[in-house]
Amino acid sequence: MYRIRSYIHSVRGKLSLVAVICILIPAVLTMLIYNSLTREAVEQQAKENANDSMQLVNGSINNLFQGMLNTANYLTVNSDMKSSFIKMFNADLDFNEKFTATNRIMQQLETLTYIGEKSYITIILTNGETFTNYSKDEVDPLTFQQEPWFNNLKQLSGLQSYWVSTSPTIFPYDKVTSPYQISVARTLRFDSTRIYGYVIVTMLENKFSKILGSLTGSQEVLLVDGDGKILSSPHKNQVNQTFHYSRQMTERDPRAGSSIIKDEDTKLLLTTADLSFNDWHLVATEPYQDAIVNISSIFSRVFLFQIISFIAFLVLLLLLMRQLTKPLIKLGKVASSVQRGNLEVRSSIRGADEIGRLGFLFDQMLDRIKEMISEVSLTQARKRKAELAMLQAQINPHFLFNVLNSIRMKVMRGGDQDSAKMIASLSKLLRMTISRDEDAILLHEEIELLTHYVELMNLRQKEEVQLVVEVDVNCFDILVPRFILQPLVENALIHGLNQSAGIIRIVAQRSDYFLELSVEDDGIGIEKEALDRLRARLTATGMEPVQETERSRGPGLSGIGVTNVAERMRIMFGDAFRITVDSDRGTRIMMHIPVREEGRPHV
Length: 603
Fold this sequence. Notes:
Layout: H1 2-9, H2 11-77, H3 79-89, H4 95-113, E1 120-125, E2 130-132, E3 162-168, E4 180-189, E5 195-204, H5 205-212, E6 220-224, E7 230-232, H6 246-251, E8 258-263, E9 266-274, E10 281-287, H7 288-291, H8 293-324, H9 326-339, H10 354-391, H11 397-413, H12 417-433, E11 440-442, H13 443-460, E12 465-471, E13 479-481, H14 486-496, E14 502-511, E15 514-521, H15 528-539, H16 562-573, E16 578-584, E17 586-594
Helix pairs in contact: 1-2, 2-5, 2-8, 3-4, 10-16, 11-12, 12-13
EC number: 2.7.13.3
Pfam families: dCache_1 (PF02743), HAMP (PF00672), HATPase_c (PF02518), His_kinase (PF06580)
Domain HAMP: 322-374
């Protein structure tokens, strides 16, 4: 798993991913475009095939209904049959005439029985006479009068027909093969209003279901009435049930024979055909995928071919990329070796392309890093020497403070208040300078340190020195490196004023991004040659800390000179720090210390 993640996050892995995307996206787009262009044609072809199949079924079903209508028309329109029915309706008819009329009617019914599909004919006259082409011993024809639909026949006019939807079969010998039957009824009239009888033509439902189930494949055809009830189906358990897609059938475009509907997540092809005799319909449903199975097979083959092509080109591309990325992998291994600390290793990758140029520049960078490490090591050595010079002036604060407090208490008991005051100032000065670990302190703390220092020096000198502080209010809270003013004031006391009375002035103000901090005295100044030497040392780069022979040897607290202060500041701030020394009537040392935008120096 780790190797897989490493490969994915490597340049080679990313290039492989890009290659896969660049090949996969065109392949997917091609499939989408192909699918979009062929979908409509495939859908249209599926609808046409469904309509053709529906036309075959529709023709056969219409023939059955037409045969039933033809039989009904013959019995109601034929003058010979009509004359026979009227004779049978006449109560004054003698036996011979009645026998002749009955025989004539039965002959006609027998003839109709053998023409076309088998159907059951029932003739009921209003005087109670009945005629059938089936045995009255098996079925009483008057049972039709008990059906709920029979009274509706009186509302018919002229040659109107009443289609009776699927009902249980009344013929006992046919119930096994066909549990249901379908009928059409007509009225027999003397004129346009007076009814003397009824004609009922009945056909078994299995005649229709055989035709509906004759289609091969997954297409299922049903006979449905206007209310959505199934009248005939290849599956007997569906008869008289409500058609599942009645709503979709009513919402369809009546001009379109076929439409595509959805049943949950399955697409179906719905095909309808209206019958011309009534408001009944033929409805066919078929899974859409089955309807387009041949086209889908072609589509699958094309897709498989594209997948094989994609894999072949991908393998070839990965092999080429592996060869091209070998220099990058080697460069990565060299970089890992450098990360572990080996700066002697080199990639030795050369070439006219970008990778060759990168290898050359990487090797150059390693050479430059070695040079910079040497420079940093030298700088750190200089910094340690400067810090060592400060550490040499420090002793254990806790021990020193306890000793000084003991001496101060002993001196106070002896009555020497000046000496006690001197010891107290020294204790405070030491506590502020050598007992704190911070690299930077606030400017007002540094000035407070100077105040104690000058107070201490005034106690040990015959003449007092006046310390004047001129600091802008917005400069007091600026952080500065600790212990940078005392060495400068010490030099002013010992060399500038020569331990005599005078004024030392501390000036601080903010200028743009710099803190301008100066120490000025009104002493004897510095001779020109000595001033030039001092300026040369302060402006020189890579200068060493001042040795003991070059420091002022006066009885000051620290003994660290101006050059050591400049060296510390240059190590901290680099070339952004500047220090200048001017000497005419007295000496003035000006330091330009970089300050961050939020008002804090870079320490």
